[in-house]
Amino acid sequence: MKKSCLLVAIACFAISAKASHIDSATVSRIYDEILEKGRVYENLHYLCKNIGPRLSGSTNAQKAVDWTKSLMESYAFDKVYLQEVMVPHWERGAKEKAYFKLNNKKQLVAVAALGGSVGAEMGIEAEVVEVYNFNQLKELGEEKLRGKIVFFNRPMNPKAIRTFNAYGEAVNQRVQGATEAAKYGAIGVVVRSMTTRIDEFPHTGSLRYDQSITQIPAVAIATKDANLLSSAIKAQPTTRFYMKLNCKTLPDVVSYNVIGEIKGSERPEQIITVGGHLDSWDLAEGAHDDGAGTMQSVEVLRTLKSLGIKPKHTIRVVLFMNEENGLRGGLKYAENAKLTGEQHLAAIESDSGGLTPRGFSMDASAAIVEKVLLWKPVFDGFELNEIGGGGGSGADIGPLKPLGTALFGFRPDSQRYFDFHHAANDVFENVNERELKLGAAAMTLLVYLIDQNGLN
Amino acid sequence: MKKSCLLVAIACFAISAKASHIDSATVSRIYDEILEKGRVYENLHYLCKNIGPRLSGSTNAQKAVDWTKSLMESYAFDKVYLQEVMVPHWERGAKEKAYFKLNNKKQLVAVAALGGSVGAEMGIEAEVVEVYNFNQLKELGEEKLRGKIVFFNRPMNPKAIRTFNAYGEAVNQRVQGATEAAKYGAIGVVVRSMTTRIDEFPHTGSLRYDQSITQIPAVAIATKDANLLSSAIKAQPTTRFYMKLNCKTLPDVVSYNVIGEIKGSERPEQIITVGGHLDSWDLAEGAHDDGAGTMQSVEVLRTLKSLGIKPKHTIRVVLFMNEENGLRGGLKYAENAKLTGEQHLAAIESDSGGLTPRGFSMDASAAIVEKVLLWKPVFDGFELNEIGGGGGSGADIGPLKPLGTALFGFRPDSQRYFDFHHAANDVFENVNERELKLGAAAMTLLVYLIDQNGLN
């Protein structure tokens, strides 16, 4: 029985693989090209070291737009162009200062304003109240929170196998913490950094204000200092916290999605999009988030072109602007697609780091998921074992869903991602060349299989 | 048809999983314990920073024996003891010096004597001949090789998906290079380091002499310098190479395998061994190779004990001595097992680095492989997707095969392993806490499933 089961399964996979047209020689050439002559690692080095941080609206973001456009032009894609989009322009200003007072001794702590936070240029100081969730705010109420600084210290759950699940369970403190605390009269918010490591890096990220609620300043604090602060509060419940933030939001500015295309030979009107986001936070080089995904996406088209593979559908690389603090690029791209009636067969995003590939998540119909699963034997050969529905896709391509586009998220191993996420150590040196290249190869493979076999 | 196939497969897996007795609550407790309260990371820190390099026969190797024994005793395993074994005692001596001469300018290069190499205390200098394989030696012949230094420069193949396959294809240069070159009268050997990275670290490793052939000195050269040397030879075929090695082999010394046990409650006479090797090369801390595997193996028993899990079979952790340059510990362990008629049900080795888990390779009968595959749904839940026959197991447990023991190799992701392998950067800082812990949890899971379900 057991044996027969396995045999059935194996046989089925074999038949299925045959059923779809897979040219294994071309598949090998794709991997060989990228692993042996790939440019993704050198390109990421340029983006990180010659341009660096590239927050929406910054001069560096514009430099990144100009350079990636010229990079695509140097590869002679059939079409390279910019798609205009208005983006938010938030600036951190001079480095933040923060400390807590224990027995009248100032203990400096490492903090970074959350993206979009209002400033506190004159500095604010108040008693600090530690909480783990929004229910506790309700229990404490205005009486105990008015005029105070709220410290959200719920850690990412170390027991989650995929770190993104732990992130999803903890990140509401960062996104809505300031608004929730302000409802009870708090004057500022300190949020434990979103990482399972105990380190000295504040991990920033965006917050969301509710226009009907007072906007109060909010910072991320390094986990090591979060632990210090927590013990201080336990030792002395009246511990006071000081923070000075020099950030401000300026008027929106013009920016761009950077787009390159290889025209389809049989179904040019049907588009397969592959992309990542070009903007990054301002604290580091945005090597993993998302320099890796953008350079991998460019590599997909470079590889098809350099191997002389003529795709049936139009393959389009899109470097989205403003994923981190607005998603304006992704929204504009889908809006334009709808307006112009473009047909988007599939979209693939890489925005989970340049780490060793595990597979792809899918946000598509059961029929499409089933069809893609027929290629599993091919994926398995490259250690892409996690192919399945669920797990979403990517923020920038999400808005394409109403157009009936099949969405795919490149899924690298998640264990190290939050060591660097939105922090000063998200630099080129923390990206491994083979892991980055294998990710680009996996994405090219998926694009190739979809292009050759379609999804219907 | 396609759908029915998948359904059949899924149904079968479900039935199979039921068929074997898997207590999912206990499985979760194993992962939670290690991820939340695990000691493996702190223990590896101690081994790396308080003891450090621990080459067979060295004082540090003895310190590692003493400390790991006391560590196991502190966990109150049912039995903790040492198994005596004579090991080789090779010493590097003072740091090597090497350079090549280009236009009479000395270009210093980073080299490290291969383990077991004879010394060259007075230094040797000769014309250097670059080759890529042993056939080229044959073609060049004694006429072109006598009195020369041979430079083996065949790189690890970057196109291999698993780096261990590339290592397997290239490592004969390091292991047999000196003997093969000596057959044609060469007086020394320089071997390109076994890594796909271009860096400044010589990666050492053992060589094997043939007693009937002259023993000539051999060094590993950093890949960056290997490329320099190669271009120099192309520019000037008469380029000369100088190397001075202060290494020597001393008489064998007494050392030990360190062993701990939890006695089985139902089949105490049947043993499940889990282990790694305690010795390391002398250039670094041996964090990945194999501090990780030893501390993970100890963690398996610590976890079972701290969760109050009473195994049916006897679970034994073995920290093998001398894997790197002799395998004496592994041979002694199997030899003793045979002499005393021990029954070894299964053995699991972790010696591929403390990196993110991928699964397990198996060297066992088809029936056992089939049985273990029934647990695939459990493994998949923890991203252990690569469970299968082939791929060998581990050097230290290999000698148990003639006893009919089912052999398992813990298989972490291989992409970063050779960045550190046998080089000065194999240090604690290059081990990720979550990756290390997940490896220990995966090993504990496999031991638990084998113990609960047996293998017949």
From TrEMBL, chains A, B:
Pfam family, one: Peptidase_M28
BP GO terms, sorted: proteolysis
Signal peptide: 1-19
Record key words, sorted: Carboxypeptidase, Endoplasmic reticulum, Glycoprotein, Golgi apparatus, Hydrolase, Lysosome, Metal-binding, Metalloprotease, Protease, Secreted, Signal, Zinc, Zymogen
Keyword flag Oxidoreductase: no
GO MF term list: carboxypeptidase activity; metal ion binding; metallodipeptidase activity
Domain Peptidase M28: from-to ranges: 257-370
GO cellular component: extracellular region; lysosome
Keyword Metal-binding assigned: yes
Location of the protein in the cell: Endoplasmic reticulum; Golgi apparatus; Lysosome; Secreted
Subunit relationships: Homodimer. The monomeric form is inactive while the homodimer is active.
Protein name, UniProt field: Carboxypeptidase Q
Biological classification of the source: Bacteria, Pseudomonadati, Bacteroidota, Sphingobacteriia, Sphingobacteriales
